[in-house]
Amino acid sequence: MKDKLRIGVALDQSDIPDWKNTLLQKIVTEKLGSLEVFLFSPFRKVEEGARLWEKHMELDAKYFKPQPDAFRKIAVEDAFENVSCLDWNDRKIEDHYLDVVIWLNDEPIPETIYDHLTMGVFYFFNGDRKETSEAFLGYWEFMKFKGVITSTLLFQKKASSPIKLVKRTWSMMSTLSIARGRNEHMWKLPSLMLRTLKEIQKTGAIEFYKEIGQKDNFEISKIGEDESDVSFLSAALNMGDHFFRMFVKLLKKITHREQWILMIHDGQSASTDFQNFKKILPPKDRFWADPFLIEKNEKQYLFIEELPFATDKGHLSVIEIKEDGSLSDPVVILDKPYHLSYPFIFESDEKYYMIPESYEDKSIQVYECTSFPFEWKHKMNLMSDLSAFDTTLYFYNEKWWMFTLITEQKGGGHNDELFLFFADTPLTKEWNSHPQNPIVSDVRSARPAGNVYEENGKLIRPSQDCGRKYGYGFNLNEIEVMTETEYREKRILKVLPDWDKSLSRTHSFNHLPGLTVIDAVVQRSRFF
């Protein structure tokens, strides 16, 4: 669009949570539109049950201290001194000639608002129930062990027009804290709106209408029951249940420790016969995870993350799998002052390269192998100044494709959004961002879990399922389409650690002809 969008923003009150402030600040700094007016409505009355829930939430937040705090209050009139402020039903709204309103208010949208807009209204539908209030988002997801928390960005051109689903995202709901899960989720919401404004800016309103017309209608009548009416008794019982969960978790932490282990199975094809996998237990003072397999000179090697509990910092090691199936002792191949994991290895021009996860360094690093398998030298950074996780490359249709998990906003989760890039060569900083990025915005299937591989003519991408907790399970996804303009995948297998009662998580899957390896978590006593 040649002209900036003229934007109105509906708010509950003049003190707004920081996630909303971040959205508005980025609209201005990234020049995605002109903030013309803030529209206010009366503060919503809170019932007795909600007041007890707020006390519950307050205690939760004080104990777990989620940072940065998405709900920290910012005075919007101080932060945006040049933006007008009106009541949402003030006739002076028409004097601002608005294109869109971003409705960040829990009150229903009045039909008269649409009469003053050239485009329409964007708003968030929080949760999967009829109650969309930001205040209740995450509460029932936590209390009912839903595992995930969701929000949907919606658009409506006129009050009588169908409601269109623009974008949707799912985040992990913490098993111990409502505040922690809510906080990570709310930091993702600015990105949904910012990406949409960038698309409008790039293609224009007419093209936006065409694309939005092809998207699904959002039918509130099909949403679950309204459970916003929290009675005092219900709120009290929920608070007691929460404290009991925390006590059980603390007791388990005192007596046991979670340890990632490896599990291996022989077989030419990628095996999912997990009951017959052999467990490989590391020493009790550390864990082994993120296994990758490489075969060279008729020898097989396991590259792993190795984390000693004493340091709580991972380094990368290699283990040789001998002909009789026994394993050599691990040898450290890469150690840094910061945490390393996920030793993804690829071959190009008859050389081996490794991309470890190095998000604490804010980079995607590449190491070249100078003496296989023990010596690796830093070659270059593919990207810098970003929080990226579990980067995985694959060569397909004469292009190199890079899958990587990226956290765009401060405070956002580390398991939620998968980005795709492509280039002609892997050793370059000139990676092209896929136009559908993020190609996945779902904590249940975004984060990479191993090498992309081909089997029976299908391209398979392993991904983590972090819906209930980090690394809870993994999926095998068939990549149906992967071009420079389109990406589509579907899940063909969901794997949860339910084949063995001693396991509580599993989050990696890798295969070589003759061998398949995964990792899993066991509980080991601290005393014997």
Structural class: alpha+beta
Average pLDDT rating? 93
State the total count of DSSP E strands.
Answer: 31
The end-to-end distance, rounded to whole angstroms, is 67 Å
- Cα Rg: 25 Å
Q: Which spans have pLDDT < 50 for at least 5 consecutive residues?
A: none
Helix content: 10-25%
Shape: globular
Spatial order of the strands forming the largest sheet: 5-3-1-6-7-8-9
Tally of separate helices: 9
Structure notes:
By secondary structure, the protein is of the alpha+beta class. It contains nine helices and 31 strands. It has helices at residues 18-29, 48-64, 76-79, 111-114, 139-143, 178-186, 189-203, 205-213, 232-255, and strands at residues 6-11, 15-17, 34-40, 73-75, 84-87, 98-104, 117-126, 148-156, 164-172, 256-267, 278-280, 286-296, 299-308, 315-321, 331-334, 341-348, 351-357, 363-371, 375-384, 387-396, 399-407, 417-423, 432-433, 440-441, 453-455, 458-465, 473-482, 487-495, 503-505, 509-512, 514-525. Strands 5-3-1-6-7-8-9 form a seven-stranded mixed β-sheet. Strands 10, 11, 29, 30 and 31 form a five-stranded antiparallel β-sheet that branches. Strands 20, 21, 22, 23 and 24 form a five-stranded antiparallel β-sheet that branches. Strand 13 (299-308) and strand 14 (315-321) form a beta hairpin. Helix 1 (18-29) packs parallel to helix 7, helix 2 (48-64) runs parallel beside helix 9 and helix 7 crosses helix 8 (205-213). The longest helix has 24 residues, at 232-255. The radius of gyration is 25 Å and the shape is globular.
Short recap of the structure:
With 528 residues, the chain is α+β, with helices and mostly antiparallel strands. It contains nine helices and 31 strands.
